[in-house]
Amino acid sequence: MSDSRGAAFDRRWAWYWGIWGLLGLYMASWDWALYPSSSPLRLLALNLLQNGTWGLLGLFLVWLANRRPIESFAWREWRTWGLHLLASVLVAALGLFLAYVISILFNLSEWKGPLDLAKAAKGLPRFYRAYFHTNLLFMWALVAAFHGLRIYRRYKAREVEAARLEARFAEAQNLALRMQLQPHFLFNTLHSISALIHADPDAADSMISRLGDFLRMTLEAPPDQLVPLRKELAFIESYLAIERIRFQDRLSVRVEIAQELLEAKVPSFILQPLVENALKHGLSDRPRGVLTLRAKRDSDLLVLEVQDDGEGFVADREGVGLSNVRARLGLLYKGGHCIDILGMAGHGTLVALRLPLGPDAGGA
């Protein structure tokens, strides 16, 4: 971080002296247009030295603006405005005096005999009348540029802080939605255990053991909003290990996912409510059922599909799980995603999530 700050510091100074150098070049071209018989190199050296002197004096205005910045246009700021106005007038006056001295020293060869201070002093008012307002405008522009840069930096800092707060808020909302799923899932699982505990105690015991493994995986998972698809699949496999006990041999699971997509980033715990819906609403009452999980690439989108061959989707039967998925994807992708639900009575349901594909997803 110190290196980046040092580089930014160096860039600011390069801009500062570069602008004064350009002003010197501009004024040298102005003088050459007025005095074409003069040496261009001599005029350039004279103007660069004069503008360099003004740049050195301008550092005082920068220091003053840093110590006593102008915060607003309100009347209560009149003392600060007056201070900067007075300082700029004094710096412009001193700068012109030094520029005049430099000009005389550059033109000593044109004086016949020794330097006549009285004669030199007579030219000073004319020099002030010709250049004072221009030099004062330079100093005002310097003060204005400093305050403009200060306002811009404060605006960017507030913008970054606002983005950080928005990200934290979205993360908190996302975490709250994730936590909302856990009691919903636990209720359903405990209900299944309750139904098995008398009919098949061994199956109920096995389900409790698998539930413990599942909850351990949930608690040990990092609070990342996005995880590799392979981690999401491992979580789903742990969840299906519980459900297979309840379904026994009535459930078949197919996974159709290309190897190169396993590192694609997906929202954590996003598939579980979709799989749970497929099992609960599509396959729970059927003698046999097939659950299919797919992932494929469609241009710059990752398409995740959960499909069952059960009863078919009922439009007004959107529960906690699906509404939770919609809310989380809205927080994470800000409308850059799509959810498609296709279903026909007696022919199953297909839920497809189309998510922006990150650069580390792999595949072609």
UniProtKB/TrEMBL annotation:
UniProt entry keywords in alphabetical sequence: Coiled coil, Membrane, Transmembrane, Transmembrane helix
Key word 4Fe-4S present: no
Domain Histidine kinase/HSP90-like ATPase: 270-357
Claim: DNA-binding is one of the keywords in the record: no
Residue ranges of every copy of the Signal transduction histidine kinase internal region domain listed in the record: 175-251
Membrane-traversing stretches: 14-35, 41-64, 85-108, 128-149
InterPro entries reported for this sequence: Bact_2-comp_sensor_kinase, HATPase_C_sf, HATPase_dom, Sig_transdc_His_kin_internal
Record Pfam families: HATPase_c (PF02518), His_kinase (PF06580)
Name of the molecule in the record: ATPase
Biological source species: Geothrix rubra
High-level lineage: Bacteria, Pseudomonadati, Acidobacteriota, Holophagae, Holophagales
